[in-house]
Amino acid sequence: MSTIDLQALIPNNVDLADNRQLQRALEKWQPAFLNWWDEMGPSDFRANDVYLRTAVGVDAQGWASYGYTPMPDYRWGIFLADKEEGRKIGFGDFRGQDVWQDVPGEFRSTFRRLIVTQGDTEPASVEQQRLLGHTAPSLYDLRNLFQVNVEEGRHLWAMVYLLHAYFGRDGREEAEALLERHSGDADRPRILGTFNEPMDNWLSFFMFTYFTDRDGKFQLKSFAESAFDPLARTTRFMLTEEAHHMFVGETGVGRVIKRTLEVMKELDTDDTAALRRAGVVDLPTLQKYLNYWFTSSLDLFGSEASSNAASYFANGIKGRPDEARFADHAEVDTHMVIQVPDGQGGVRDESIAVRNGINEVTRLEYVKDCNVGVTRWNMAIKRAGVDFELKLPSTRFRRQVGLWAGVPTNPAGQPISQAEFDAHRDQWLPTEADQTFVKSLMQRVTEPGRMAAWIAPPDRGINAQPVAYEYVRL
Ligand SMILES: [Fe+2]
Ligand SMILES: [Fe+2]
C-alpha cells in the first residue's frame, strides 16, 4: 500500500514532491480552493471542531482516521487507489491491451470534458448544501453534512489533480473555471441540471444523498473501468468515500419514515393534515420528494441512445459499472431493446446497438441499486402495519434529458396529455405548500443526542461513538 504524505502542504500519495512543476501549479490552485470554500462552502461553522474522518491511507481497512478538525483545516489532498500492476483494458476495441498512463492525443478533449463535468458536480453539491448547517436536526446530522461536504471538496481535488497533471494549460484553466461556476448562478451555472436545484431543507438533502450521490457512484464506477489508469485509480478511491454519502441518504430517509410511523401509531391516523399538525412528514409527501430527486438524477445518465456513449465504450474511455459482470466486453453488433415514445401518445420498443445504449444500461443498474433502499424503507412501513408503499417512478417520468424529455407521462411511465399531467402534478411532485410545510419543520437542534421532532435518532453513532456524542462543538 502506498502511504499518504499528510505533512505535505498538499497531502498526497502520488509523490507530488518529485514533480516540482505540478506541485507548484497545485499549490497555486490551493488558496483559490480555500477561498472558494470560505465563500461558497458551509456558511459559518468555520471555527467549530467537527468530528471528521480523514483519509490516511488508501487500502480498504485503514484509510480513515477520526478526530476533531475545524473544516478549513481538513487535509484535502490527492489520493489514488494503488496501481494494479499489469492492468489491461477491460472492454471496447482495445480490450486486452495495457492501460494508459497518459491520455492519448486523440481522446484528450473527450477525457477533459468528462473529467470537468464530473469535477463540476463535486463543488456544486457543497454550494447547494451551503445553508443546511443552520437547520440541522441534530449534531449527528450536522456532522454528517460536513463530512459529505469536505469529501465532495476532496473529490474536486481528485479531478483537479488529473486536469493539472495530464492536460497542461487547458487543464489548469479548467481547474480555475471549476471554482468560478456556481450552483444556480444565472450567468455561470454548474454544468448539470440537478446540481443547480436549490436545496433548502433536510428531506431534500437526504433524497439528494440517496439518489444523486448514487448517480455519482455509478459515474465513478464507469470511470473506474477506464483505460486511462490515473482516472480509474482516482475514481476507485473516491468510491470508498462516496459510500458514506449514500449511507447518510438511506438512513436519513429511513429515520424520517420511522418517526412518521411512530406518530401515525401514536395518533392512530394516516390523515395528512393531522400528521402535519403533529410535525412529521406524511408518507405521500415523502413519495413526492422521492419522485422529484429520483427523476432529476435519472437525467444525469444522459440520453438512452447516444453515439457519444458508444464511442466512449469503443475507445475504452468510460465503461459500464462493474464491467467484469457483463458477459460480452466488446458488444460488437449486439443489440438491446429500449422504450421510446411512439409519437402517438404511446410507447414503442426499439432495438439499438448495445454500444449506443450504454447510458441506459448504466441507468438501469442505477435504478436496481436505488430499489434496494426503497425495499428496506417499505419493510419498515409494512412492519408498522401501515398500508402504504413507496415506489420509484418509471424512468420515463418527468424526464428533461433523453428520448422522454418533455414527454408527459404518469409515474408508471404511461404517456398522458400535458393537461392530464398538469391536473395531477400536485399529487406527484412537491407543491409549494408541501415545500413550505417541510421547510417549517427545519428547526435547529444543538443539544448532543437530541433530534428534531420529525426524525428518529440513528441506530448508532459514527465510528462506534454514542449517538449523544458531541459531533460538532458549537
Ligand atoms: Fe463526490
Ligand atoms: Fe458524494
TrEMBL record:
The source's superkingdom equals: Bacteria
Residues making up the signal peptide according to the UniProt record: none
**Molecular-function GO terms, alphabetical:** oxidoreductase activity
Q: Does the keyword Oxidoreductase apply?
A: yes
Major enzyme class: oxidoreductase
- Keywords, alphabetical: Oxidoreductase
Q: Which InterPro entries match?
A: Aromatic_CoA_ox/epox (IPR052703), Benzoyl_CoA_Oase_BoxB (IPR017635), Ferritin-like_SF (IPR009078), RNR-like (IPR012348)
The EC designation for this entry is 1.14.13.208
Q: Which Gene3D superfamilies match?
A: Ribonucleotide Reductase, subunit A
**Protein name, UniProt field:** Benzoyl-CoA 2,3-epoxidase subunit BoxB
Write down the species: Ramlibacter aquaticus
